[in-house]
Amino acid sequence: MRPRIPSVPRITSLPPVALAGGALTVGIGGLYLAGLLVAGGEIEAGTTVRGVDLGGLTREEAAHKLERHLARAGSQELAVKVGDRRGTVDPRQAGYTFDIPATLDRAASAGADPVSAIGGLFRSGGDIEPVVSVDEDKARATLGKLAKTADQKVRDGAVSFDDGRVEQVDPHSGYALDVDAAVGTLRDPFQHGSAGSVTVLPARETKPKVTAEEVRRAVRDFARPAMSAPVTLTAGGERFTITPDVLGEHLTMRPDGDGRLAPELDSKGLRAEPAVADALNDLPATPRNARLGLDGDKAVVTADARAGMKVDDKALGKAVMPLLTKDGSDRKGEVDTRRIQPEVTRENAARLGLTEKLSSFTVNFEPAAYRTTNVGRAVDLINGSVVQPNETWSFNRTVGERTEANGFVDGIMIYDDQYAKAPGGGVSAVATTVFNAMFFAGVKPVEHGAHSFYIERYPEGREATVAWGSLDLRFTNDTGKAIYIQAESTDTSVTVNFLGTKKYDEITSVKGPRTNVQEPETKVSTDEQCVPQTPLEGFDVTVERVFRDGGREVKREPFRTHYAPRNEIVCEEPGEGLLPGQGLLQGEDLL
After folding, report:
1. Do 369 and 352 meet the contact criterion of CB atoms below 8 Å apart?
2. Interacting residues of 345 by C-beta distance below 8 A, sequence separation 6+
3. Given CA atoms 562, 568, 572, 576 in this order, what sign does their dihedral have?
4. Is the dihedral of CA 579, 580, 584, 585 positive or negative?
5. Model confidence over 69-98: pLDDT tens digits?
6. Above 70 in pLDDT, residue 333?
7. Would you tell me which of 125, 182, 365, 522 could form a disulfide with 201, CB atoms 3.0–4.6 Å apart?
8. pLDDT in tens, 492-535
9. pLDDT digits (tens, 9 = 90+) for 540-571
10. pLDDT confidence band for 575 (50 / 70 / 90)
11. Rounded distance, CA 207 to CA 217, Å?
12. SS (H, E, C) 468-479
């Protein structure tokens, strides 16, 4: 069956055809008719969209064909790059789609108007770009997620040290994805296809301040020389060597404001290293005063003074840094050592007024291992104390807390008016000896306190005890000259001498009678730490300090003391001596 040929409207009048200059000339009406005859369908012959041939198809047929091909193209992920980091974008999630109706509008003939119809005589389709539609909200959201993984911070070049080795860090620029600009950038690869290619997305670049060239300079000029060999230092006669691995632990290179790497040394940390600390700790850190003794009643120097030496962190760093860029024998140096002069030397003892004995006092006691240890430790800490004019001396500040770490052991002390075991027991013998030496030296008492009950080996009303944090023994030197405290002990005694310049010819003591006498009680204790205690009456007593000068009495100072009764303490095992249901009499608790 032959295809039906559409009828052509009859044309009753055609313009003439003429040959002019070798060219065929046709009237406008003839061209229009010819254009209509040539354009047989909606899509012109030779029309393609991304390689898909749509020529001669109806709009509906072209739509179906494009949907199949563009659906595959529109689902392909787009390879992207931000700085030097790669990633992919799913165009469907990012809101990029092909607008098929709009694309067909581009591809289809414009209609049967004269201009389009006549134009169809002179063209044959061609490649049409698909129309892209973008949901910008989706695109920004997707690109924002991409930025979280693709963005990178700028990294400055760096130099570090590890176990004596030089470590380098290469710099790189920082990149921050420009989300708004990237929305438009992705349109083109999506529209034209980007198979096998990577789209560089727009990003804000931050260049490193410390460049690769600066890293190379820092390594060449400082880091490698610094790690090339040990450095040797001398301080106060002590010689020590610091190896590269130790140096590297405390060396860093930090960028300055101009992007240059400058070396820094942690001098404090370096000083704490055993190789350094062991040597510097051998230096006498504190000065030692000249030791004084007595030749009769005259003060004499028995041992010379010694200056202290201090090496501070700054001095150590100042000595080390210049050596790090040197080599061979030039990597040796001297650390500046600050000398700390003692207060008393052989040369200035007389000028300070340390010329004679002001007073001397000795306390004897029964031998006990704890007492020998604690008394001896307190004496060591007190001996050699120098009290300048108008200066106040403190027993607790000089001796320190009576702990095991400070060299003291448990001994017998008085707690709640009875003997008990506690650290530092026996130190009151030293306090009493110092108090009496102070008493007879005639200096001004500031703080002191007697034992709660009387202890027979001490003079009545002229003794003192101390307790860390609550009771101290203090006096002020009001003689006008320096005072030197000389202290010594044996297993059964402690002696304290005050040396200086006498202000009075003689100082004596006058004791009054006991008054307000109180009888002790008897108590039973089952405490595991119980210490038996013999009874002794309590009483009040006044002792006067008498000052004489030029053969006459100048003044008197009273020292009043109250002693509580020393109750008898009987130590028993729990339940011993008590009948069932029987307790202590007179409402006393079982201590």
Report:
1. no
2. 289, 290, 304, 305
3. negative
4. negative
5. 888 888 888 999 999 899 999 999 999 999
6. yes
7. 182
8. 999 999 999 999 999 999 999 999 999 988 988 888 778 788 89
9. 999 999 999 998 999 999 999 999 998 888 98
10. low
11. 19
12. CCCECCEEECCC
Nearest one of 512, 495, 567, 511 to 538, comparing CA atoms: 567
Nearest to 181 by CA among 275, 327, 80: 80
| Residue ranges of domains in the chain, CATH in brackets | 214-340 (3.10.20), 356-571 (no CATH)
Helix runs in 57-173, H state only: 59-74, 100-107, 114-119, 136-150
- CA distances for 514 relative to 190, 364, 566, angstroms: 114, 23, 15
Structure tokens at 131: 């129309």
Q: Give φ, ψ of 564 to 5 degrees.
A: -75, 160
Strand partners, 53: 48
Dist CA 13 CA 387 (whole Å): 142
CB 94 within 8 Å of CB 185 = no
Residues 6+ apart with CB under 8 A from 146: 80, 82, 87, 89, 177
Closest residue by Cα to residue 488 from 268, 291, 211, 235: 291
Q: How far is CA 566 from the centre of its chain?
A: 55
Q: Coil, strand or helix: which one is 1?
A: coil
How far is the C-alpha of 455 from the C-alpha of 536, rounded, in Å?
9
- Give yes or no for a contact between 546 and 439, defined as CB atoms under 8 angstroms apart: no
Tokens found for residue 233: 């230092």
Give the span between the Cα atoms of 160 and 3, in whole angstroms: 88
Tell me if residue 410 falls in helix, strand or coil: strand
Q: Which of left, alpha, beta for 431 (phi over 0: left; psi -120 to 50: alpha)?
A: alpha
Residues 6+ apart with CB under 8 A from 214: 157, 259, 260, 261
Q: Percent of the chain having pLDDT more than 70?
A: 85
Closest CA to 531 of 422, 438, 418: 418
Q: Which residues pair with 471 in a beta bridge?
A: 467
* pTM for the predicted model, two decimal places: 0.59
Determine the residue type at 426: G
User: Mind giving me the DSSP string for 538-560?
Assistant: EEEEEEEEEEEETTEEEEEEEEE
What is the residue-averaged pLDDT of the chain? 85
- Please state the φ and ψ torsions of residue 28, each to the nearest 5 degrees: -60, -40
Separation between Cα atoms, residue 232 and residue 319, nearest integer Å:
10
